[in-house]
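Running low. Got one?
___
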Amino acid sequence: MLDTTMREVKEAAFRPLVWRLRRLPPLLFTLVGLLFGLGTAVALGFQQYALAFAGWFLNRAFDALDGGVARLTQRQSDLGGYLDILLDYVVYAAVPMGVVLGRPSPFGYIMLALLLGSFYVNAASWMYLAALLEKRAQGSQASGEETSITMPAGLIGGTETIIFYGLFILLAPWYPWLFALMAALVVATVIQRLFWAAKNLD
């Protein structure tokens, strides 16, 4: 929901750093970001919440740098875009699992299953819709987006995910309820896109 606005803010904030790091390959930032994301999950498993929050911040920072450097140096590639989203989803799965491993409970495991299940359905929802829009020449190139493929708008997008994951870390004792809230909003986003698709793809 906030991605369009925040993407412009992110680009402006990281532009000076992107310029200084422009000689490095974009894939390097993607892989370093993955390491910080997995480190976040491990830190959460040991209840090292300050370390986990720092890891999460760095994961998101390196995620911003890979695309920024690629665009600045004209090194964007389909493989780079594919790896970026694939490794993002690895981190999106690992972090909530780390939260639960740090504070295990039967209710927590149920809410984790609910959250990851909602992600599973949401991935099918937006990725297949994105593929159809690209097929119809209504995707990222047509809309002027700087991402590899179009990201159909929804209630929960990248910005909201970053915020929720930060809350999972900072408010770890209440994670089951935060998982439930995010899962409900993700399901609402799937339904939102379903109505959009029914109206616009027929």
